[in-house]
Amino acid sequence: MTNAQLYTIVALCIYALVMTAIGFLSYGKSKTLDGFLIGGRNIGAWATAFAYGTTYFSAVVFIGYAGQHGWNIGIGSIWIGIGNAILGCLLSWILFANRTRKMTKRLDAKTMPEYFEKRYGSKGMKILAAVIIFVFLVPYSAAVYKGLGSLFSAVFPGVETWVWMLLIAVLTAIYLVAGGYIATSYTDLIQGVIMIVGVVCLVVTILNHETVGGLSGLMANLSAFASLPGDPHPTTGAQLTNIFGGSSFKFLCFNIMLTSFGTWGLPQMIGKFYAIKDTATIKRGTIISTIFCIIIGCGAYLIGSTSRLILGGVLPEGGIDSIIPTVLMQVLSGGTLGIILLAVIMILLLSASMSTLGAVVLTSASAVAVDLIPTLRKNPIKPDSQMLLTRSLCLVFVACSFIFATQNIPIIVSLMSFSWGVVSGCFIGPYIWGLFSKKITKAGAYAGILTGLLTVGISTLVISLNSGFAAAAAKSPEMGVAAMALSMIAVPVVSALTKVKDTQRVDEIFDCYHQD
Q1: Which of 47, 96, 100, 90 is nearest to 286 (CA)?
Q2: Domain containing residue 66
Q3: What is the pLDDT of residues 241-277, one digit of tens each?
Q4: Does 173 share its domain with 268?
Q5: Is 236 helix (H, G, I), strand (E, B) or coil?
Q6: Residue 64 contacts residue 355 (beta carbons within 8 Å)
Q7: Rounded distance between C-alpha atoms, residue 273 and residue 268, angstroms
Q8: Which helix (H) or strand (E) holds 400?
Q9: Both 403 and 415 in a single domain?
Q10: pLDDT band at 463, cuts 50/70/90?
Q11: Looking at the 3D structure of the chain, how many domains does it have?
């Protein structure tokens, strides 16, 4: 066993013990459904801010997006991190946090489908939303497993990837099932601190690497870069140093819009606002969360932009997903300090992934246990039975995500490409307009959901028939952005052509904004 492996195992054991302890210590506060799903609406600024940020950035961002876009686009990919922090975090908190907290409290809504049901008076909309969440978010969590498993396999080449995926699944299941949202919020706080320390140390170390030469050296060396013969992703120094992405400008813009505005309609992100304590907490949380996202997002893409220099322009054997793991092994494998930092980075990426997994699994489980099954049953479910069902479904969804990630089931892998855009494209219009306007009707909300779904579905079908499914998957960012835009347009247009039938009930709902 190498020193890097030994240090990593010790760090993993300490991390696992802390996460497990938090889960069981939070059990007493999560015995009710309200406590399990939204922490009794009493979560503070730091916990909520870090929960938002750590759910936003998983190992997929570091290993997948940062590696791929940093390699292909270069320094301009940092705009994705900036966009995520300003548009996906700061603007989201300013526009939606307080309104979401107040309205969901007035409606006594604990989930996104429940918000739709009570805001628009439609059980059918609740069922449709729950099905969309289940179908597209569980595959998304499988992508998180795959991203993290590839990194651990680089450090422990003799251990199968599925072993690390199983470790992640078991650890996530323990603290999530035991402590629910309260456990995830406190673990996210610890995980967020680890992520900040790890990213700052990693950025400093990589910039000081001999092939990079600091910030000034990075620009100079990238400018002089020339692709090797036979490079499957050839590029030029001018491309890699173009601050606006050069030939990839359009692609960059769509990715910024998808990964930034997409958070405005994702239930696992919006759910953080349900649980926050009060208006003062939101003001502090806005600042904390934005700073967190700037550090993590910009740091990740800055690291990715150095990859061609550190790897000498040679794409690793494992392809795009192996870029960041290979960079880490090359930069941090020498010397005791580097090995210790490698162990910290491993825990950083584990933290990023587990926080995202916990949020996605909790959202998916609640969609079925709280929104789908009770609505379809004739007889109501007792509170204790519903709690048991919710905990059990958390286990089931963790297991399903693990199985999907290890088996490479074609339909599941396909759904991963579209999950973010479809879910946000369906929900963003009805969710946002429902917070701001009394004139939005049930028909308008339905139009927003169906428009988002059909935009991606029809586009995928047409492109697949003409150019193959791979071409459709490559266009998934554009489809997602289009779905979100059309959903935002469809909701007010259809609402203008229909009437709100229960104006008194809607007036009572909107009275919540006059109270704290």
Answers
A1: 90
A2: 3-408
A3: 999 988 889 989 988 998 899 899 999 899 999 999 8
A4: yes
A5: strand
A6: no
A7: 10
A8: helix 383-407
A9: no
A10: very high
A11: 2
